[in-house]
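Troubleshooting log. The previous structure file for this entry was overwritten by mistake, so regenerating from the original sequence record. Sequence copied from the archived sheet and checked twice against the printout by T.R.
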Amino acid sequence: MPVTQATVSRDLAAIRAVRAVDGYRLAGDVGGEAIPEAERRLAGVIREHAISVEAAASFAVVLTAPGHANFVAAELDGARPPGMVGCIAGDDTIFVATKSEREADRLVRLLCSMMEG
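Regenerated output below.
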């Protein structure tokens, strides 16, 4: 079936597919999952894909390898760590909004501990 890049992109967005290291996959949906499982999965994703995490005012900024930010952001959205209001992902950068600088610092410490294992 002939398609254009725009059609494929819209279809992938409609089914909530995200780009991962090994191709596309459906974003994790935690409806009904226990939060500890979502946090465990997030810790593994952060450990594997995050390069650095820093606070910037009331944001936590997560840097990933090129093309990994959407995958990591989907896992952040699914786990909803304490203090997170929402996030926006680019190609290799995620801005995680928090309610305050204090919450951003707390979230950065949590994500850094996940990076360290």
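Confidence is low (pLDDT under 50) at residues 29-35. Archived copy saved in two places this time.
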